[in-house]
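Bug #77: duplicate submission created two jobs. Keeping one. Sequence:
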Amino acid sequence: MIRNIILNISGVGLPLLIGLLTIPIIIDGLGLERFSLLSISWVMVGYFSIFDLGLGRALTQSIARLIGENRISLIWSTFTKTLYAMVLLSAFGALALLAATSSIVQLINVPPSLKADAFNTFYWLSVGVPAVVLFNGFRGSLEAAEQFLAVSVARSALGCWMFIAPLVILPFTTDVGAIVAVLVLGRYVLTLWTGVVATRSMRRIVAGTPSDSAPLRDIARVGGWMTVSNIVSPLMTYIDRFFVASSLGIAVVAYYTTAYDLISRLSFIPEAAFTVLFSRMSKLYGDNGAGASNFLDLVSSCVNFLTFTFSLVVIAVSPDFMALWISPEFSRVSSPILSILAVGFFVNTAARPYYNALQASGRADITAKLHLIELPLYLAVLTYCVSSFGIAGAAFAWTARATLDFALLAYVKTTVDGEQERILRRIGGVIVAVGVLLAVAQVDGGLWRYLICGTLVIVQLTLWKRLFTHEHHILVSSSLDTLKNKVLTKFKFPARGGPNL
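Kept job's structure:
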C-alpha cells in the first residue's frame, strides 16, 4: 500500500514542480487575458471526463471484481465493450462542444481582440475530447490490474506537458489556439501509449482463458449513481471560473485560477493516499465492516491534522510567496484568494474519507444525492458572492460549499453506520477549525500572521497528543512498522540488532 501511495504522489509531484517553475514565465509571455483563456482551456480538459458517464471508474470496479472472483473469461469482453462505448460517447461529446463553442465564448466574456483566438482554442479542445475520455478508460483498467507505475508515468507526463507545451510554443506565437493544439497532440500520444500498455496488461491477465461475453449493461449498472457524482462534482469544482469570467471579465480569471490551481496541486499527497486507501476501505467493509469505523477515524484524524497544519502554513506565507513567485502587484489580488482557498482545501480534504467510505461500502447513491442537493445551493451562493464580493466571493462560495459537503457526508456516513455518538466529535472539531482558519486569513500579512499561525501549530500539536486514542496508536504503529519493513527490504538495510556487514 505504501509503494502505491508513493507512486501516486510522484505522478502529480513532478507536474507541481514544473508548474511552479513555468507559470510565471507563461503569464509574462502571454499576458493576463491570454493566460486566463489558457487556464480556462485547462479547466475544460478536466471536465471532459463527464463524457465517459462514469464508465472509466465503473471499468476499474468491474475488472477488479472479476479478478477477485476469478471470472477471468469475462475481463476481455468487459474491457473492449466499455472502450467501444467510450469511443461513441467521446464522439458525441466532441460534437456537443463544437456546437456549443459560440455560446461558451460569449459566456466567458472574451474581449473582441481575443475572440478569434478563443474560437480556435475551443475547436481544438473539441478535437481532444476522445483522447481525454479514452485515457480514463485505459487508466481505469490499469488501476484495476494494480499497474500503478504505468498510471503514475502517464499522469506525470500529462501534467508536465500541460506546462511545457506553452513554453515550447511561446518563442513562435502567443496564439492560445496553437498552444492548445500542441497540448491536444501530446495528449493523443500519451493516450495511445497508455492504451498499448493497458491492452497488453489485459491480455496477460486473460492469457490462455477462453473469452465469454459480458453485457455492457452490467458495467453501466456498476457506474449507476456514481455516474451522477462524476458529472455533478466536476461541475461544482470548475464552474466558479466561468462565473468569474462572465461577471468580472476574462482577465480577472488569471488571479483566481493561479491561486486555485496552486492549492489544488498542493493537495497531491492526500489525494494520492486516498486513491490507495479506497481499496483498503473496500476490503474492510467487505469483511463485515470489521475495523472500518476505527480505520475511518484514524484516516480522518491524520488527514485533518496534516491539512490543518498545511493550511496554516499556506495562509501565513501566501502574500510573500505570491509576491516572490510572480510579482507584488499580482500578490495583492491573488494572495487573499489563496488564503481563503486554503481553508476550503482543509475542509474539502476532511470530507474525502467519508466520501470514500460511503462509496467503498456500496452507497454511491448517497454521495450522488448529496451532490444533487448541493448543486443548486452552491450556484445560488456563488452567484450572490461573485456579484457582491468579486473573485474573493468566488473563493468564499467554494469554501462554504466544501464545508456543507463535509458536514453532510460526515453526518450521513455516521448515521448510516448507526454511530450517532460519534457525530459531534467528527463534525464539531472540523467546523471550529474552519472558523479559526477563516479568522487567521483575515489578518493582514506580516509578522502577526506568522506569530498567530506558529502559535496555533503548537496548540494543535498539544491537542493532537491528548486526543489521539490508544486504538489509533496501535494502527499507526503497525503502519509505521509496515513502512519500515518495506524500506529495509527494498534497500536491504540490516535490521536493528542484526549483524553489521
